[in-house]
Amino acid sequence: MRKLMITALTAVLVSGCSIMPKPTNFNIEPATIDARSAIMEYLREQPRPATPIPVTVYAFRDQTGQYKPQANVSSFSTAVTQGGTSMMMQLLLDSGWFAPLERENLQNLLTERQIHNSARNGQELPPLKEARLMLEGGIISYDTNTTTGGVGAEYFGIGASEMYREDQVSVYLRAVDVHTGQVLLSVSATKKVFSMELRAGLFRYVSLNRLLEAEAGFSMNEPVQHSVQRAMETALVELIEEGQVRGFWRSQS
Fold first, then answer.
1. 6 pLDDT exceeds 60?
2. Largest alpha-carbon pair distance within the chain?
3. Partners of 205 in the beta sheet?
4. Which of 21, 134, 211, 221 suits a disulfide with 195, CB 3.0-4.6 Å?
5. What is the number of other CB atoms lying within 10 angstroms of the CB of residue 159?
6. Residue 81 · residue 225 · CB < 8 Å
7. Is the whole model's pTM more than 0.90, yes or no?
8. Are the beta carbons of 93 and 53 closer than 8 angstroms?
């Protein structure tokens, strides 16, 4: 009877492994274009200005100075993305409200313009377009283990458990009037980063010298980059709507 029960439990664990979600084709998958999030789709459905507002973004940096938390090892990988400026430029273009101007690699642009001017026999390129607004800000915090928990049970060498963890990322975004230097608006947004793990196992001596051990499980970690992007999107939408309320800009009715 005992051997029959152990055989049945082993079959359950093996069948569980077969239906458990896992990568296919050894992760050899074609690249895909990132779809717009629900909040960006909402923004694109709203009325937009007749002419997009020229803006500059010199940098939207990681201001946390935090590295990835790893147990018992030193990690030099940053906890959040270092590409915040590129992400913000994409969001500004997708919003339909702003016409971003290149400023992050301004020196490269100026060098290329000098090359063009030298090849045009004295006919210089027109001056660069100026912006009325400058967007500043960055990723200001990444807190790990803001919430942790789990549940599990084990009986007679058979057990299962579930654990979860929540991190938190926050961003700030402000709009500055280039003509006066006045900070017109400042908003912040926070996004939870969720991780969870499910495990089940069997550990039994079936006889004096024979040990049966089986284990199955999977984990799911929400990408930090996507969480940062969602926080940036939320901050941008709030900035646009707050600017309309205060009369700094308006949509085309």
1. no
2. 96
3. 211
4. 221
5. 15
6. yes
7. no
8. no
